[in-house]
Design a protein that fits this description.
The protein has about 700 residues and is of the alpha+beta class. A hairpin with a 4-residue loop joins strand 2 and strand 3. The chain contains 15 helices and 31 strands. One of its GO terms (molecular function) is histone acetyltransferase activity. This is TF3C4 factor. It comes from Cephalopterus ornatus.
Length: about 700
């Protein structure tokens, strides 16, 4: 808010002011006085917001975090289980305001002196964030040095401040830090005491519109236009649209915007829902030839206490609300000729978890789970002494619904539907078989379209089935083993069962039971394991081993199919981007020979492509060489390369090059490894290295 020395002097002056309206306001306001002296320290987070998928260097989400002392930072998960702060937006915005003299535009009147308490308050309120929200990913055009235009992805972060201003940051993707910030524009909302913020994104006739929905602690809700410069196909409103203007003192707690399709009007529409006290305010926005139609109303009779959290499933428009008494309401929108109505039903968490207090809810991306933050409720009319916060998961879909959604998915990416695959995984682990209807439907999909997505889905099912067939370990694998070198007397032949032996047996059984209980709801079939032990001598183990070998053979066949399909893609890139007899770092000849080595593999597309590539190579082989002994590395295995001297190098699953360095990347599920891009790599190889895992769709770290 000003030079450090001057700010310190002003703080001392206001704290010791004879006017109690100044001194008490200053001492009790934690924005001015974050250290607080005798007050509780400002440690923790006020709010956090996740960006859409595909914003960081690994194609995952960025996290915007607002701390209790009003510092807004952006973090990224660059390495596995390691979060890094990329930029401090509070510091950057403060520098911008300082350079502009704490004015939003040049026409504004000059600001007062920092020693004046109203000016001191104004400078703080224009930099104290209340909420921040990410927009969807949009496309901008960037002009290169040779006047060519290329599309560059960008994302917007809107930050709402205490004085009602909104700073809209534009970031170029992938976001790497301060250098990825494209612009920052400030909008004046005109709303006093703002409480919540949300993006309004609407698509009409292939034209995308955007705006910002702002709610106030006094009740009003309105949409503000956001002018996005140089964004392809984006439009905004001409002027602000007031959705609710009554100052009824019902604070707006949460706002969600859900894109829907109107079955009667035969067009897309936008449903805005906001939690206001114990009520849900809804507003249906529809663009027609007459202009923007706005229908709004309130849903009453949901909760007896104020709504503390609200979430929405954007797949089907279902809204979930909860109050602190452990009651969750499910609201399903049903369209009518004019607007819509809501059908709502009560979900009593007390029937599932017992007496609990709820503090927040969130629905998973594909609507498979509802996550609920709970603490213990009242017992015998008394509140608990200590609060133990827990995150509980409630399934919202059945296994059949999750499987059907995965089969008909337009996303065709297992990683982006991980909540649905988790439901399927749990069912197969529990029943130890893949349901017949799912197997048949998946085989039909593979025969009809042959998309690699369905092959990856099949691989996922086979791997889980293989895992379910394996015997559960008797002890937790993460525990250190305390093996004693001494031999127990009871182990010597001829000795009967002793009390110690019985105790040891019960302790082993207890540890096994505890492992099964903590296996994320997986009920391992102990009877199957017992039958394995009992029939060890009679050959009963052989059918299980044969079954495991059969599943293993199916897994290897599916992996080989996916490998061949990706090899074809890599060879296609090589053919499109190389000249005659050009040496690329990709072992092209080795990949061609590997594809043609199997007599049972007869793919006409692969044969034609390989023929064209071999003509281009003109009898050149360009083999890879071992960096240790300079011997040739033959391409005999898709996973590793072994030279004649026995040096083993792992192969990159994205380009099939040997990773001859100490540092490489690995996919999230540890399926495969990939090398890092190097400065000398051409753009098309760098693009190949940005791809996800070819087996599980996971990003690569």
């Amino acid at each position: 808010v000003g030079p450090k020395k001057e700010v310190a002097e002003c703080k001392e002056k206001f704290a010791s002011s004879a006017d109690p309206t100044v001194s008490q306001t200053f001492m009790l306001d934690r924005v001015f006085n974050p250290e607080g002296k005798s007050l509780t320290p400002m440690r923790g987070f006020k709010y956090s917001s996740w960006s859409p998928l595909g914003c960081d260097a690994n194609g995952r989400c960025l996290l915007a975090a607002l701390t209790l002392d009003n510092r807004l930072t952006i973090h990224a998960n660059l390495n596995r289980l390691q979060w890094v702060q990329l930029v401090d937006l509070t510091e950057l915005y403060g520098e911008r305001l300082f350079e502009a003299g704490y004015k939003l535009c040049k026409a504004d009147a000059p600001c007062g002196e920092l020693g004046d308490f109203p000016e001191f308050q104004r400078r703080h309120s224009m930099q104290a964030p209340v909420r921040m929200e990410w927009s969807g990913i949009c496309t901008t055009q960037q002009v290169k040095h040779n006047n060519e235009c290329r599309d560059v992805g960008s994302v917007l972060l809107a930050v709402l401040f205490e004085n009602g201003n909104i700073a809209v940051w534009q970031f170029q993707l992938p976001f790497l830090g301060k250098e990825s910030i494209t612009s920052c524009n400030t909008i004046e909302s005109g709303i006093s005491s703002p409480s919540v913020l949300s993006w309004w994104e609407y698509e009409h006739s292939n034209r995308k519109m955007s705006g910002l929905i702002v709610g106030s602690a006094y009740g009003p809700v309105k949409i503000l236009p956001v002018n996005l410069k140089a964004v392809k196909g984006y439009f905004t409103l001409r002027q602000p649209v007031v959705l609710w203007q009554e100052m009824d003192q019902l604070p707006v707690h949460s706002i969600k915007c859900i894109p829907l399709y109107h079955p009667y009007q035969k067009c897309s529409c936008s449903l805005v829902v906001a939690a206001r006290g114990p009520y849900v305010f809804w507003c249906l926005l529809l663009i027609s030839k007459a202009g923007l139609n706005v229908h709004n109303s309130h849903v009453t009779g949901l909760h007896s206490l104020p709504i503390v959290s609200m979430t929405a499933d954007k797949q089907n428009g279902t809204v979930y609300t909860c109050s602190s008494d452990g009651k969750v309401r499910q609201l399903i929108p049903i369209f009518t000729d004019v607007a819509l109505k809501f059908e709502h039903q009560l979900i009593k968490l007390s029937e599932v978890f017992g007496s609990v207090r709820t503090h927040g809810i969130a629905v998973s991306p594909c609507g498979a789970y509802l996550a609920v933050i709970t603490t213990e409720g009242m017992a015998n009319g008394l509140h608990p002494v200590n609060k133990n916060y827990q995150v509980q998961f409630v399934t919202l879909k059945t296994f059949e619904e999750a499987a059907a959604q995965l089969l008909e998915s337009s996303v065709q990416n297992l990683f982006r539907q991980v909540d649905l695959t988790d439901l399927v995984r749990w069912k197969i682990l529990k029943d130890k078989h893949i349901p017949q209807f799912l197997q048949e439907a998946l085989d039909k999909k593979i025969e009809s379209c042959g998309s690699t997505y369905f092959w990856r889905f099949k691989l996922f099912l086979l791997r889980i089935l293989y895992q379910s067939m394996q015997k559960a370990p008797s002890e937790a694998t993460w525990k250190p083993s305390h093996e004693d070198a001494k031999i127990l007397i009871s182990d010597s032949p001829g000795m009967g069962s002793t009390e110690d032996d019985q105790e040891e047996g019960t302790s082993k059984q207890a540890s096994k039971q505890s492992l099964c209980d903590t296996g994320k709801g997986v009920d391992f079939d102990d009877t199957a394991e017992d039958s394995l032990h009992q029939s060890g001598d009679t050959g009963g183990r052989e059918p299980m081993e044969e079954k495991l070998l059969e599943i293993q053979a199916q897994i290897e066949a599916v992996e080989m199919h996916l490998t061949r399909e990706h090899m074809k893609r890599v060879l296609g890139e090589v053919y499109l981007h190389t000249w005659i007899t050009e040496n690329t770092s990709i072992p092209t000849r080795g990949v061609c020979d590997f594809l043609m080595s199997d007599d049972g593999y007869d793919d006409r597309t692969a044969r034609v492509l390989i023929g064209h590539i071999l003509k281009k190579m003109n009898k050149q082989t360009f083999p890879e060489h071992c960096s240790l002994c300079k011997e040739i590395l033959p391409f005999t295995d898709r996973k590793q390369a072994v030279c004649s001297n026995g040096h083993i190098w792992l192969r990159c699953f994205l380009t099939y090059q040997s990773c001859q360095s100490l540092v490489y990347r690995r996919c999230l599920l540890h399926d495969s490894i990939a090398r890092h891009p190097t400065p000398e790599d051409p753009e098309w190889i760098k693009r190949l290295l940005q791809g996800p895992c070819t087996f599980c769709d996971s990003p690569v770290f």
